[in-house]
Amino acid sequence: MKAVVVEVLGDAEAEIAWRRFGKGDRTDTSRVTVSPLVTIKSRLVSQANVEAFTVTITVSLYAGYPWFTDWGRDTMISLEGLLLTTGRHDLARQVLQGFGAHLRDGLLPNLFPEGESAGLYHTADATLWYFHALDRYLAHTGDTSLLVELWPGLMDSLGKHLARQAPFGIGVDPRDGLLTQGQEGFQLTWMDAKVDGDVITPRRGKAVELNALWHRALTLGSTWAASMGGTTVASQLGRAAERVRASFVERFVHPVTGGLRDVVDGEDPLDAERIRCNQ
């Protein structure tokens, strides 16, 4: 008869571990990957020789336990409410570091599929929410050392967006400075339903919330660059932010209703007249 002891941070982590590890035989001695941010190293034990599982947990937030694991967008939106206002600043720092280590081609992962080590990057907004989450962390903690640590990745991300070198058609339109995105078969915004391979709400083009977040990222980048003595970069990012602001007002504010258009320069001309009810 086998017996197992699990040493983790708490009951919730233990339950997550077992739900993820529960596929197949629990007596498997292999190293089980819950996600790149949560891993379990297992060792089989018997009643005569009870040893403990060794569990290494880099803190993460689960988007829809027990059905979903780590999602970039959900994590960055909820980080302030779950970890910062509750005083768990060290955990927030680890979350930001963990996701920052997975920046690729200027993008933060959309999600980490269960049991896989590589993230999926089909999202246009998770990276922009990352800038916001870091700003809230700095406001709560004043820990500028984390900003210095993450700055190279942040600068690379802004550069990829500005040069339109990010995947999935994500990048700045040089005509107006606004952020555009879209690739057939991918859902890149928060309206990410996909059924039988069909993207339900493609929203390819310049989506309203993406450009609000893009302006925010540029403004924060300019402020952070200035704080570290990068006056030239700060000026460049500041000018880009001002251009986005002017173009946003011109392109998104509907002249009749005063509401905000959902998507401009999209595939469907009617997008420019649509105003989402959940704005």
Q: How many runs of DSSP E, i.e. beta strands?
A: 12
Order of helices and strands: EHEEEEEHHHHEEEEEHHE
Helix fraction, binned, reads 40-55%
The quaternary state of the protein chains shown equals single chain
Report the radius of gyration as a whole number of Å.
Answer: 21 Å
Enumerate how many helices there are, as a single number.
7
Shape annotation: globular
Tell me what you see in this structure.
By secondary structure, the chain is an alpha+beta fold. The protein is 41% helix and 12% strand. The chain has 7 helices and 12 strands. A 4-stranded mixed β-sheet has the order 1-4-3-2, covered by helices on one side. Strands 5-6 form a two-stranded antiparallel ribbon. α5 crosses α6. The longest helix has 22 residues. It is globular. It starts with a strand and ends in a 15-residue tail after the last strand. The N terminus is likely disordered.
